[in-house]
């Protein structure tokens, strides 16, 4: 087996080319209608018919007026059963042939006119044999035999041989399986590599041992790919461990700070400075929680997936959002609620994604939020609009980055940590969906989230 892809392509190309040339050159020689020499038995039969016709002509006197009848009676008498004899005079007259046979008879006479080397050739369902020399006094005739063809060649094969273009097309069709096998053998490892790359793109960092097989070029590529996946997995694990360690280390001084704040309040009562310290401590605690959630969400291997119904999945999120909007004096309208559409995913991640989008709208809106659900054959689209200050076009792609903040009204005074939309994008990407920001008809920001439906 050739292990080099380059050598395999080179070998198969030349093998296919040689096969095509061989078929083009050799197949026409397999045409049963080719001129061939007689067998010994056929040669003896022809000589015997020659002698019988010659003797018959000698026994019957010549008649200048009806000479052709004399020749016709001789060949008709000695024609073998189911066969016919033809005589051709020195002037080229044909005696004994039917009108519809004259074309093939003339064709055969033109190709075989040497009585020392008689031949035979098939024409469809008949075969011509000859010539044999017949002497009639001073005249010499050529004797031919017309008989049914043994195993006549089909009309389709005759058409193939008569039309070189059809023969070339047939030759190409014969070589097509070999070329298809070549294309398949080249595409198979490429498809495996593409599927493995798609898995990595969606966060599934696992090695693919099947890539390290096949031609040397793909084998080396597969080995390099698996090494890259291993390196990425180590980096992600190290990053996760680092974030967890940092978050854990921050918890201790944060807890001490909150405890010290409580003690100072007990000793000295409420104060503006203490309230500010407590607010910042709570914000830091919330940021640590969001950072851990984002880090865990980026590890796809941690997601446990199930078949979920959209209306059941997000019912609590929407009910809680309505309640919070009422407490804030705002109006949250669900213009089109979710239906019983089936999603294959992690309920916690999808809950968190919608909750972060709705909370983002509640936080920044002035008075009104609108949520719309719709679905088609491919997926579910969720649109969340608010009437807040909105986001400039140059910032819309950046707001999904962790800790990114705009320079306008959506700043730190809103109380956010800057991680909510980053958590949304991570969750949506893990479910092979997408999220984007647009202008809202309410005047603020519109967030559009799309998730694929489960395909049965």
UniProtKB/TrEMBL annotation:
It comes from Chania multitudinisentens RB-25. PROSITE patterns: HAMP, HIS_KIN. It catalyses: ATP + protein L-histidine = ADP + protein N-phospho-L-histidine. It is an enzyme of class 2 (transferase). Residues 184-237 form the HAMP domain. Its EC number is 2.7.13.3. This is histidine kinase. The chain crosses the membrane at residues 6-27, 165-184.
